[in-house]
Design a protein that fits this description.
With about 900 residues, the protein is of the alpha+beta class. The protein is built from 18 helices and 43 strands. The strands form ten sheets. Strands 17, 18, 22, 23, 24, 25, 28, 29, 30 and 31 form a ten-stranded mixed β-sheet that branches. The protein has a six-stranded antiparallel β-sheet with strand order 32-37-38-39-42-43.
């Protein structure tokens, strides 16, 4: 950062980002966007102009000239496009309304951008993995059964991990070195015995048949003049491993392959390209490695310095070229999966059964590392789970085939350290078998892994239970953002679209998820069916496609498919990223065409018996097909932890949830079309929404404000989406509150209503009921989980029963954590009044039972924060508004201030009779 002309932080510019990322390496982006943040000690600071300059090693490459503009995000340079495999230095200069000037710099590098690889795909000598899904029965009953239950398992059908060496010589001084690599499987890369970065699970999880990411590595400092070696370790991963709910192998292929170009540029201007075709392969200590099952490592078979030049590879076998298409290759856009937090376990103890158990102290998605001194040949088994049973014994809460989550390690002689390499587990507890003597906690550490994203949102209050809930939301988010947004990090690790549809606003507040979700949406687009259906899972693994179609006769359903609209809209709202709307607009329209076709041309069995008026309105109601509906309604699933209870929630609600979500989709599309300036489309979707609304009210809404599907969530969805006449609205709100009261003051909402619940209550004058639900400790409630010791968000509200009986649900599902966004906005009082927080609304929750709350968000413009506190006779408010934005500060219902950037402190004295005296400090 460079500060110019003025002292005392009159103006600084920081955090210059490219495509919402700091110095990205290897992105395939022809017209990158730039954004930056202003910092100033003055108030009411606005940007009045900027200038962007881009340099390559040859000098100035692009110059925007001075642009008279206040835009500090999403800026491009007119008539300039990047070139492949090029390093760029970017400098921005900004001017503010006080005449101050400042500048800062960053760098980025493009990927291949379609430039063909020199190398062909290569394949180590190996036995193909047997395909387990072909000719397999796929239904709800069969996929949940562990076909190996009660049997001793040796995993003989698993194939070993492959090690590939690529020796080469650099005969001249090296100026720059890059490796471009991808795999069928997952891989780790080394150069001369060192890893150039610490990414995990490359090339990560995508719809491989259409999108296969390659990674770019800066290996300049690792390549020396003389002899060098590139080493690559290849494991099954999502390509041929046993993945998804059914645990089936070979979703995309049955062999592990490598694609690699190393481009070595010399000081004299020449270059060499080293290819994967020069490689030789062998097996080694990793007997097998599977994302779900775990891995077996025999330390006695270690290969020493196998990725160094001096290693003797005379017994290794040459790889062979194989033909695979390369038109699916794209540079990795989002930041990689990485260790984001390393910590020591809480303790190691003996269970009532006498078993040795490690307690991490936190449910986590990650990997275990341990160190010990041992004799050779000792087999140690580490089995992972998220919960103990009622008596405190080890309990495997994840059912199904190939869900072992087990690491088996065979010792070598002496001091040794091992960390899981090509698998990750969802766990808090680890059963340790075979350990020589008694293990101690200081011999272990836990590595939490997640896609790298900056933590940008923070929330804390005077209530430690709420603070624990906030931590639970964060932990479930990081555990379920490993390459893609997933449902859970153990049973499925799958991109269920309904979960992220509900959770996206909270995700975007807590971490900078722009690039992450932009990348995943590319997979949504390519997985969209020709008829417009958006699969309920993305990437849509082959076994899932068979299972979903056999069991539900459709690839999609309401709410889940709506992720194609809701996720881009959430990104736009959080970060001001309009391009994600543009990129996905065609797919959104295609999804709406699918729904319209289902509503207009597919009807219930009784359709022919209806009169013409009934038939006419039915064409605006999506009242056919299977839908998950308001999935996991507590009153249906509590005490019934099997799949049939879950499905009951679908059958009980799908008939009315699908028509309601059609209205939701149309209303959302009107907003998107308005934002993009498509006036005709906006008018069309507004008209469509009105017709759906009228049809819904006529079909489902009774004069007394009730609906036939008498569940809390159905009323919540109807109220949020305006599917009730205004004259009847008070009756429906009253009935909803009555249902809550009859349910012991507890919620009873599922996946598709929980995201609306608290807003519906607040928007309809029932904030007191919203707070009642927020602070409720009976089951089902958020704080019930906290008081039962939860450290993450559970799949089911009653996963641990009131008598402490545990169930086989997942204990790490973020969907019901979507309340987080409401907490930050309503309890914390920080609200985005315009996309990207260009305008901010501050509205402290003075009516809340909390005595203080603090919320901070690192917006695209800078830090915004609200800290409020109250006691018996005073209220205090401190607000920070970033430069280049404005804010509306609600002190009470009669006093609202509009301000520019700066720090503002208010003290409000409470007087007798309810009057207030406001002092601006």
């Amino acid at each position: 950062m460079v500060r110019m002309e003025k002292e005392e932080r009159l103006l600084e510019v920081r955090d210059l980002v490219v495509e919402h990322q700091k110095s990205p390496l290897g992105i395939d982006c022809a017209e990158p966007r730039f954004g930056w943040k202003l910092v100033s000690s003055q108030k009411n600071v606005f940007q009045t102009g900027y200038q962007l300059k881009v340099f390559t090693e040859c000098g100035l490459n692009a110059d925007s000239g001075k642009i008279e503009s206040g835009e500090s995000i999403e800026n491009t340079i007119a008539n300039w496009k990047t070139k492949p495999m090029t390093s760029y230095q970017v400098r921005v200069t900004v001017w503010d309304n006080y005449g101050n000037q400042a500048e800062t710099e960053t760098c980025f590098e493009t990927g291949r951008m379609g430039k063909p690889f020199v190398s062909a795909w290569v394949e180590p000598e190996q036995t193909p993995t047997a395909n387990s899904w072909k000719d397999k029965q796929m239904d709800c009953n069969s996929v949940g059964v562990n076909q190996f239950a009660g049997k001793e398992r040796y995993f003989a059908e698993f194939q070993p991990v492959q090690y590939v060496r690529i020796p080469f010589a650099a005969e001249k001084p090296v100026k720059k070195a890059r490796i471009y690599a991808s795999a069928h499987g997952i891989y780790k890369l080394e150069v001369n015995g060192k890893r150039p970065d610490m990414r995990e699970f490359a090339p990560e999880n995508t719809a491989y048949h259409k999108i296969l990411q390659y990674q770019t590595y800066d290996v300049t400092e690792f390549v020396c003049q003389g002899k060098n070696t590139i080493g690559v370790i290849l494991a099954d991963g999502w390509w041929s491993g046993r993945v998804g709910v059914s645990g089936d192998s070979c979703q995309y292929g049955d062999k592990k392959e490598l694609l690699l170009d190393a481009v070595i540029q010399y000081e004299d201007g020449t270059e060499d390209v080293i290819t994967g075709e020069m490689g030789k392969s062998s097996t080694g200590p990793l007997v097998y490695a599977d994302l779900f099952v775990g891995e077996r490592y025999d330390a006695c078979k270690e290969l020493g310095n196998w990725s160094c030049a001096e290693y003797d590879d005379s017994q290794w076998k040459p790889v062979k070229k194989v033909e695979y298409p390369m038109d699916n290759l794209v540079g990795q856009y989002a930041p990689p999966v990485h260790t984001i937090y390393t910590f020591s376990p809480l303790k190691i103890f003996r269970s009532p059964k006498g078993e040795m158990i490690l307690d991490a102290g936190q449910v986590v998605a990650g990997q275990l590392e341990f160190t010990l001194n041992a004799e050779p040949g000792i087999e140690i088994k580490l089995e992972h789970s998220e919960i103990l049973d009622k008596e405190g014994n080890y309990f495997n809460n994840i059912l199904g085939t190939n869900k072992e989550q087990m690491v088996v390690y065979t010792t070598k002689e002496g001091l040794q350290t091992y960390r899981t390499q090509f698998s990750y587990q969802g766990f808090r507890y680890v059963r340790i078998t075979g350990w020589p003597g008694e293990a101690s906690a200081d011999q272990f550490c836990i590595h939490a892994v997640s896609s790298l994203m900056e933590d940008i949102g923070h929330f804390s209050t005077s209530d430690e239970r709420i603070n624990r809930l906030q931590q639970n939301i964060w932990w479930s988010q990081v555990a379920n953002t490993i390459s893609i947004p997933t449902d859970c990090p153990q049973r499925e690790k799958a991109g269920w679209t309904g979960d992220i549809m509900a959770y996206a606003p909270t995700m975007c507040f807590l971490r900078n998820a722009d690039a992450f979700l932009t990348s995943w949406m590319a997979n949504v687009r390519v997985e969209q069916r020709d008829n417009g259906a958006v699969p309920v899972i993305v990437p849509y693994l082959k076994a899932y496609e068979i299972f979903i179609n056999e069991s539900q006769k459709s690839d999609t359903c309401c709410g889940w498919g709506d992720a194609v609209i809701v996720v881009p809209w959430s990104v736009y709202q959080a970060y001001g990223d309009k391009r994600i709307l543009e990129e996905n607009y065609e797919a959104m329209n295609h999804w709406m065409d699918y729904i319209r076709n289902r509503a207009e041309h597919h009807h219930p069995e009784e359709y022919e018996n209806w009169d013409e008026e009934h038939k006419a309105r039915s064409r605006y109601l999506w009242n056919t097909d299977f839908h998950y509906g308001d999935w996991l309604i507590p009153s249906v699933v509590l005490g019934n932890p099997d799949g049939s209870a879950m499905m009951e929630t679908a059958y009980a609600t799908m008939g009315i949830v699908a028509p309601a979500y059609y209205a939701f989709s149309a209303a959302m599309m009107k907003k998107v079309a308005d934002t993009l300036g498509y006036k005709e489309d906006a008018a069309y979707y507004q008209d469509l929404y009105q017709k759906i609304r009228e049809a819904f009210i006529a079909e489902y809404v009774h004069e007394d404000g009730t609906l036939d599907a008498d569940f809390q969530g159905i009323y919540v969805i109807a109220l949020k989406n305006g599917l009730v006449p205004e004259a009847i609205r008070p009756k429906m709100v009253a009935h909803l509150c009555d249902l809550i009261e009859k349910n012991n003051g507890c919620l009873d909402t599922g996946f598709l209503s929980i995201l609306f619940l608290m807003d519906v209550l607040c928007e309809n004058g029932k904030r007191d009921v919203a707070y009642q639900l927020m602070f409720q400790t009976k089951c089902p409630s958020w704080l019930y989980e906290v008081e039962k010791g939860a450290t993450t968000i559970w799949e089911s509200w009653g996963a641990i029963a009131e008598d402490d009986t545990v169930s086989t649900y997942s204990y790490n599902h973020y969907a019901f954590g979507c309340v987080g966004e409401w907490m930050y906005r309503e309890m914390g009082g920080l609200q985005a009044a315009a996309p990207g927080y260009k305008k901010i609304r501050v509205a402290p929750a003075w009516d809340c039972v909390l005595s203080w709350a603090r919320v901070v968000e690192e917006t695209p413009y800078g830090t915004a924060s609200v800290v409020w506190e109250k006691d018996s006779d005073r209220k205090y408010l401190h607000v920070q508004i970033p430069p280049n934005t404005t804010a509306e500060i609600v002190l009470d219902e009669n006093q609202i201030e509009t301000v520019g950037s700066g720090d503002y402190t208010y003290e409000i004295e409470l007087r007798k009779g309810g009057t207030e005296n406001v002092r601006n400090q």
